[in-house]
Amino acid sequence: MFMKGFIFGIMSFLVTGAQCEVTEVLTEVGSQAVLPCKCSPLQCSTSLIIWSKDKGGTIWRKERSGLQYWGSSFVGKAGARVQCPHAQFDKGNCNLHINTVTESDGGLYTCKVLYGNRFEENQVWLRLVQVSISPSAPVWGDDVSITCRVNPWPTEASVSWMLNNRQYKARNRIFSNGKQSFVKEIVTEKVLGNWTCVIDIKKEWQFTTALSVRGIIKPPKDNTMVYAAVGSAVTLPCVFSAGLSPKMTSWEKVGVGKPIDLNISNRPSFSPWDQSLIINVVELKDQGEYRCAGTINEKRLTRTMQLVVAKIVQATRKGFVMLTCQLTDISQDIEYEWVPAKYNLNGTLSVGQIQKGQTFVMEEKWDEVTCRYYENQGLLGNVTFHNQVMSKFSSTLVCTIHLLPADI
């Protein structure tokens, strides 16, 4: 007993001054992890440094002579996955860099730096995080799980979720089993975007993945407004995710009661996922609601859109020609502006002063006047009136259509 106590006393005398602090490092699987550890800038290069995991075998070691050793579990065909860059020693850092971390790399790491007869010790919890979506490419209406897996799971941490940078509050859809936190949802427009797993353990850590959906991607939502002028051509978009081959595709004008036949003249593309419809010459009667549909994995996907038709109505009042820009749907907050123009002798156009308002009075002899109509998202479209009497360069009605920027 005396001999054992004597030996222990000598060891305590020879190696003293131990310090220990625990740091948390969370990183994603597949990335590089940097585990922090401090050393004396003046002695780091000549000190014995040992990195070990879970109080087990050494994974990296530097002798006082500078020789380095690696644990076999961190050495593969491509070489060692761990390193402690010597260039950082002068700054007092002996951080351990682990490349291409795997889930099994998670655990408690210990950094021990020995200076002569004393040592300093730091401990680092490395937790590997995986945020995933299953199925990875769902279609509209699918059940989907968004999972945040952490190894080792932080028992004292709080885990929450954000959707598109806003707190996700549907607590009845959030579950946890001691290894992971996950959300169960049904794929609708409301759940698309960036899902962020927020882990609060000593500080806040955030890990994000994007939930996208396969199906009809253009237009991205129902009741999309498509604008066109009388006499123009317009494409009603119905584009599925690339690679999909929808079955039983169809188009219909809602309320008419019969499908629209698709043929060479009204199809802009023959790729199986582009089922858009062309109306070659728009008439007033074409305005209204349209629906495209197709079946993917036995799910019937549909998208509706409103075709809004624009025209210019001409009237005469007190000897002046009055032009009124009319849309068949005025449910949106629309602003109008008029751009009058004259042809020069060489056939080029000279533009006059732009005027606001839905009605334009032709107090001068303009050759053509264009009505532009806007919403808060930008230009929706325009329609041009050509004065057949005044202009020797006049031509038929020229129209331009635009989709709302958000719907392209």
Question: Could you explain how this protein is built, in words?
Answer:
- With 408 residues, the chain is mostly beta strands.
- The protein contains one helix and 34 strands.
- It has four domains: 110 residues, Immunoglobulin-like, CATH 2.60.40; 77 residues, Immunoglobulin-like, CATH 2.60.40.10; 87 residues, Immunoglobulins (Immunoglobulin-like, Sandwich), CATH 2.60.40; 99 residues, Immunoglobulin-like, CATH 2.60.40.
- Strands 1, 3, 4, 5, 10, 11, 12, 15 and 16 form a nine-stranded mixed sheet that branches. Strands 20, 23, 25, 26, 27 and 31 form a six-stranded mixed sheet that branches. Strands 28, 29, 30, 32, 33 and 34 form a six-stranded antiparallel sheet that branches.
- The longest helix has 13 residues.
- The protein is elongated.
- The N terminus and C terminus are likely disordered.
Helix content: under 10%
Kindly report the CATH topology of the largest domain: Immunoglobulin-like
CATH class type of the largest domain: Mainly Beta
The percentage of residues in β strands lies in: over 45%
Task: Outline the secondary-structure elements.
Layout: H1 2-14, E1 20-28, E2 33-35, E3 48-53, E4 58-62, E5 68-70, E6 75-76, E7 79-80, E8 82-83, E9 96-98, E10 107-115, E11 118-134, E12 143-151, E13 158-163, E14 166-167, E15 174-176, E16 180-186, E17 193-201, E18 203-211, E19 216-218, E20 224-229, E21 234-236, E22 239-240, E23 247-253, E24 277-279, E25 288-296, E26 299-317, E27 320-327, E28 335-343, E29 349-351, E30 355-356, E31 359-362, E32 368-375, E33 378-386, E34 399-401
Parallel strand pairs: 1-11, 20-26
Antiparallel strand pairs: 2-9, 3-4, 3-10, 4-5, 6-7, 8-9, 10-11, 11-12, 12-16, 13-14, 13-17, 15-16, 17-18, 19-22, 21-24, 23-25, 25-26, 26-27, 27-31, 28-29, 28-30, 28-32, 32-33, 33-34
